[in-house]
Amino acid sequence: MISGKFAITTHILTLLTKFPNDFLSSEFIAGSINLNPVLVRKEIANLKSHRLVESKEGKNGGTKLTVDPSSITLKAIFEMTFETINLGYAKNTPNPECPVGKKINQNLSNLYTDINRKISLQLEDITLEDFSNQF
């Protein structure tokens, strides 16, 4: 199902791009997103696991971008936050005797595959630097 992870992660990375020489605190980032710092730290942990950021603790601690923003695409960010978009299926198993029910999940699956292909194509040409330059 869709969540705000892509938006949160993109916001974090855009902030880090705008302040390339600074370690930004999770509180500062959370203030920009208007989100609980715990949720920000969770997304930062994901970014650290992908080696896009480094963090340091302490009074002057925070998080800093470790990659060139021109080297990462929004497609890569999307794939870090979701493997695919899935808009979901009905909670109940559709009636296999119904002309719609017997094919609805397969048709939705095909639609979701097409949506993901189109999203990937659109995002693969936009770098974090390109996106950050809009601000």
From TrEMBL:
GO terms for cellular component: cytosol. InterPro entries: Tscrpt_reg_Rrf2, WH-like_DNA-bd_sf, WH_DNA-bd_sf. It comes from the Bacteria. One of its GO terms (molecular function) is DNA-binding transcription factor activity. Pfam families: Rrf2. PANTHER family: HTH-TYPE TRANSCRIPTIONAL REGULATOR YWGB-RELATED, WINGED HELIX-TURN-HELIX TRANSCRIPTIONAL REGULATOR, RRF2 FAMILY. This is Rrf2 family transcriptional regulator. It comes from Flavobacterium flavipigmentatum. The lineage of its organism: Bacteria, Pseudomonadati, Bacteroidota, Flavobacteriia, Flavobacteriales.
